[in-house]
């Protein structure tokens, strides 16, 4: 019997524990160990594959370098580590964003998250419906109306994008010079009266009348202040109106009496350069002018004041409205695989949950679209006590007007939504061209308003036919 | 009086000669200034303080405030400029090699082997060069996507020969036509094959044309913008032509000093290359032209 007894070995399984192991056990363990060892590389591959999950994001090159630094090297790295994802952020100039989006759509290949800087309504057929991502965030934080109107289509009931933030478009004026002529740019009437005197002093008004994003915004601001609109709430073209004719007449006078002809050829950077060079006394822009002045033009900086848009004539309603300067909207392409879409949506949710940090990194350039992601107290403190402005003896409250920008800002397409037709009109610069035709005496105000209507009606008809507008 | 006349004539001739020389030098000086003005402007702007640069009352050609290295620091320390230079060199070198490998035999074949169809084919090839990248980038984006080369430098290596090869083949075709066919015939009579004659006879006397092609292909690859913008997104993969404008124009703020610094540093190697081979370059361009 003893010869048939299996061989038994004692094997230490812990410091103070030994176990009897038969030859059969030993063979089993050896085979299992060998199998495990041979499968280990595959297990490793699984781990590596999991690590290689990738999320690609396309952003514009942010005006605040610190924001890109925070987003690219801090936040996304942190999020990537927490979620075992490699996050890659690519940047392109803002002017290339629509062309690049068109190329990605044509190639059916592109970034997992694509950030636009104006409402991307024309891309709606190519974008994922983000209702499942946006709705919970809206319930949790609330959303400002201009962000809703720039990323939601009430006709298709689709959130074609998620707007994380928006950029106000205040006026910048030379307070020292305006004080000299005894005006504050509170109304358009003040602007033209002061402008005449300022032009005589060699520092004219600087409002671009050209195919440029700033002009596109500013012209809408002044139209709304005069009660003119591009469309109504029912998506009907309303450009050819008495109010439009009035605003065209006013703008012609403003151009001839207070500005230099070079505004007809301005691009997005021209007002920055002109203000920083001391060549003009009043422009519309995001706060990039004030921030650059703080860094490189310390003598000029305290004299640059940020102010709300001027009020229109009382007889035309006396409104005070300004378009958002930049509307940042993320989209996810429909053609992406489901796992990438899911990951991108998760990233968006987490980003909005952390928006308070982004707000700080943006140095007051961007404001939250989801209202309560930045508590009111934090917002007020940031606008009223900006640390850089606080150092300027005569202008510590330079940015406080931004706190009130939620009240006077609205979306492109006001009083309707920023729909695809409005987006195409914006991208083809019909509104600045209408103003330029009158300013340069090529058309009467009446003819220019009719010209704009003739341009816009087919665009509205086209997008209605495609089912994207009611 | 009889002796005064020739002296006067000699003097007036001498004055005329001096005036002629002065006029010549003035013209040359003006052209030199015209050609070097972009470099002068880039150099001044790259080292100028922003407050000095933006002040319209200042003389733009002088440093009204002490020069600064801040723009260069930003360029080299806060962007991936060095990496962009390397990427550009890599892409341009590979594209030059591919272009030579295709354009030399293509140009030779069109010049020697295709008879009266050669010229028409040459014109046809040149016409393809005229189709602008702004039209081609969308279909090519699909090609690059199918090849899975998006965001990869090899995408540019694949695409750039589409405009370097037609132009360089056409250029070399004209150059090869200027070389007497009798030279190759003599080599063939002496026992060379067609390829042997090309390698031993034609190529050694075509150095000027080949150098021209090298310089053209390299410069075209360096300066290309649309394809690089469309196919490459990560900063680390960008070439100079796309990296400098994309990372140094932030929103509506232009970093003029760093932009000019980047343009200056990137253009210096190309300028040196042109200067070193200027004579051969001119010979390469003109030899074919006079045939």
Textual characterization of the structure:
- The complex is a heterodimer of chains A (470) and B (291).
- Chain A has 470 residues and is α+β, with helices and mostly antiparallel strands.
- Chain A contains 19 helices and 15 strands.
- Chain A has helices at residues 23-51, 65-83, 97-107, 131-141, 145-151, 175-181, 188-200, 213-225, 242-258, 270-276, 288-296, 338-353, 355-361, 376-384, 387-390, 405-408, 420-427, 430-439, 445-465; strands at residues 8-14, 17-22, 54-60, 86-92, 113-116, 152-153, 158-159, 162-167, 171-174, 282-284, 304-307, 322-323, 326-331, 367-368, 409-410.
- In chain A, a hairpin with a 2-residue loop joins β1 and β2.
- In chain A, α17 crosses α19 (445-465).
- Chain A is globular and about 65 Å long.
- With 291 residues, chain B is an all-alpha fold.
- Helices cover 76% and strands 1% of the residues of chain B.
- Chain B is built from 15 helices and 2 strands.
- Chain B has helices at residues 4-46, 50-54, 70-77, 81-112, 117-129, 133-146, 153-159, 161-177, 181-189, 194-202, 207-223, 226-231, 240-247, 256-276, 278-290; strands at 249-250, 253-254.
- In chain B, α4 packs across α8 (161-177), α5 (117-129) runs antiparallel to α8 and α8 (161-177) packs antiparallel against α11 (207-223).
- The radius of gyration of chain B is 25 Å and the shape is flat.
- Chain B starts with a helix and ends with a helix.
- The relative contact order of chain B is 0.13.
- The model of chain B has no long low-confidence stretch (mean pLDDT 86).
List the helices and strands and how they pair.
The complex is a heterodimer of chains A (470) and B (291).
Chain A: E1 8-14, E2 17-22, H1 23-51, E3 54-60, H2 65-83, E4 86-92, H3 97-107, E5 113-116, H4 131-141, H5 145-151, E6 152-153, E7 158-159, E8 162-167, E9 171-174, H6 175-181, H7 188-200, H8 213-225, H9 242-258, H10 270-276, E10 282-284, H11 288-296, E11 304-307, E12 322-323, E13 326-331, H12 338-353, H13 355-361, E14 367-368, H14 376-384, H15 387-390, H16 405-408, E15 409-410, H17 420-427, H18 430-439, H19 445-465
Helix pairs in contact in A: 7-9, 9-18, 9-19, 10-11, 17-19, 18-19
Chain B: H1 4-46, H2 50-54, H3 70-77, H4 81-112, H5 117-129, H6 133-146, H7 153-159, H8 161-177, H9 181-189, H10 194-202, H11 207-223, H12 226-231, H13 240-247, E1 249-250, E2 253-254, H14 256-276, H15 278-290
Antiparallel strand pairs in B: 1-2
Helix pairs in contact in B: 1-14, 3-14, 4-5, 4-7, 4-8, 4-11, 4-13, 5-8, 8-11, 8-15, 9-10, 11-15
